[in-house]
Amino acid sequence: MSNFNLFKNRLRLTGTLELETALRVGSGSTDNLSSADISVVKDNLYRPYIPGSSFKGVLRAHIERVIRLVEPNCGRGLGACNPLRDDERCLSNTQIENLKKEFEKDPQRLDAELFDRSCRICRVFGAPWLASKVLIKDLLLAHPDLWMERRYQVRNGVGIDRDNETASQGLLYDYEVVPSGTLFNWEIIIENADQSADRTEDGLVMLGLNEFANGRVQLGGGRSHGLGWVKLHFDDEAEIIDASNRDDFIKYLATGKGCKKSREYILKRAVLFASILAKQEGKNVQASI
Ligand SMILES: [Zn+2]
From the CA of 206, how far away is ligand 1's center (Å)? Predict the structure, then answer.
């Protein structure tokens, strides 16, 4: 049974995110400092940033797609449910309510049951009943001193009237983008990942980050117009705090610093996770013969 109150490990990854094409992470409206109809999200100094939640949503969606290919059924630590639909989640609201009633007097058992029935993705990225192990900070400009107001670009968009398939004046709008080449810093913390050989949850997250590193991911709006292609770069080292290594853990408590691990070590975790999936594919092939 998992003990949810124990600190087991923490992996801190950092690097930069480069915009290969312009980015539109819209604020959903205009702001009074912008001339565009749709402006991008900005900090209180009028500089763009990428909300960690936006980044995390895209990262999760990419990993879900990979997992669904190999593990089409979800629940009990496998597969990827659809977190947006109650009837397609690994635990529906009704099931959760039933479990709450069943284990009303044993909250620890309830936590364990909820965790046990959750899919592979919810166990790592969280669900309404489960805390996320992945924390992503807002991505801020890597060189804020170089940023100036004129660096925003405004582009024209045309809304198509669905009835007569023409653009009418009322449907014209313009929107703000952050130009290509802009660099953001990113920081991801993976806490209490199950690092056992058959789970390798840190490797699962790395698998998704590799998609960003290979330039196969788009962020923000206007993706069909080619906006939002990004490329992620890893720093040379990551930081690991492993409570099972008592000497290192005591050193961390004393200094506040974890162990440094090379980028190659971290990338290998993705390979290890991919080999878990490959084995399952093998099993499926065997079963279907
Ligand atoms: Zn799930």
Answer: 19
* 142, two tokens: 């890597």
With beta carbons less than 8 A apart as the criterion, state whether 136 and 55 touch: yes
Centre of ligand 1 to C-alpha 3, Å, is 20
Q: How many CA atoms lie within 13 A of 218 on its CB side?
A: 13
Are 233 and 213 in contact by the 8 Å Cβ rule? The answer is: yes
Residue 147 CA, ligand 1 centroid: distance in Å: 40
Ligand 1 center from residue 124 Cα (angstroms): 9
pLDDT in tens, 236-261: 999 999 999 898 889 889 998 999 99
Judging by DSSP bridges, how do beta strands 237-242 and 259-262 pair with one another?
Answer: antiparallel
Please state the domain extents for the chain: 9-69+133-288
Helix, strand and coil content of the chain, in percent to the nearest 5, comes to 40, 25, 40
User: pTM for the whole thing?
Assistant: 0.89
Q: Which two tokens stand for residue 90?
A: 């690994």
Condensed to tens digits (0 to 9), the pLDDT of residues 175-221 reads 899 999 999 999 999 999 999 999 999 999 999 999 999 999 999 99
If you measure from the C-alpha of residue 41 to the centroid of ligand 1, how many angstroms do you get, rounded to a whole number? 30
* Cβ-based burial of 92 (10 A; exposed 0-12, middle 13-18, buried ≥19): middle
